[in-house]
Design goal:
Layout: E1 3-9, H1 12-15, E2 19-22, E3 30-32, E4 37-39, E5 53-60, E6 68-75, E7 81-85, E8 91-96, E9 98-99, E10 102-103, E11 107-110, E12 116-119, E13 124-125, E14 129-130, E15 136-143, E16 150-162
Parallel strand pairs: 1-11, 1-16
Antiparallel strand pairs: 2-12, 3-4, 5-15, 6-16, 7-12, 7-15, 8-11, 8-13, 8-14, 9-10
Length: about 160
């Protein structure tokens, strides 16, 4: 038996407990380069702990389709993790509040194709799930001497569907 999880459009307000939505909506914070470039300044709270540093990696994930199974979430106790698509295709985001060291009821969001996200440190989240090819993402996360991954496998899996 599976549980149903509805995926909703991603908004900054709904995602705020779990991280930051990075987009270029509204007026830029300032104009630079002789007024030819709008700077949307300081959109994410990156956090790499006292013994980490920022690393930029490229991920190439296989696209999936909704509905799709959700049987595991993970978190990174020592640092934040940002996913910046290198395309303009929507992708699925699953997060869950912490419930005394394990994930609570998950929430699912779908980006609009022009949004990136940054998971706050220690946020339970699903794996990278592009909904179309290519699945290329720039990922900014912690590089450090200690492991930065904890996984949780659900005893009853979920099925993520469109809302």
């Amino acid at each position: 038996m599976t549980q149903v999880l509805q995926a909703h459009p991603l908004t900054a307000e709904a995602f705020a407990p779990f991280g930051d939505v990075l987009d270029a909506t509204g007026a830029p914070d300032k104009l630079i380069n002789q007024g030819l470039c709008g700077r949307f300044h300081d959109r994410a709270q990156v956090d790499f702990g006292p013994d980490g540093r920022a690393g930029i990696s490229i991920f190439n994930a296989e696209p999936r389709a909704l509905p799709c199974p959700l049987d595991m979430v993970e978190r990174h106790p020592d640092g934040s993790q940002a996913f910046i698509p290198m395309h303009q295709n929507p992708f699925l985001i699953v997060v869950a509040p912490d419930a005394s060291g394990t994930p609570g009821t998950p929430l699912a969001f779908v980006t609009d194709g022009a949004q990136a996200i940054n998971f706050h440190r220690n946020t339970w989240h699903g794996v990278l799930t592009p909904l179309a090819a290519p699945g290329l993402f720039a990922v900014i996360d912690r590089i450090g001497p200690t492991p930065n991954l904890e996984e949780h496998w659900f005893t009853t899996p979920w099925e993520v569907q469109t809302a």
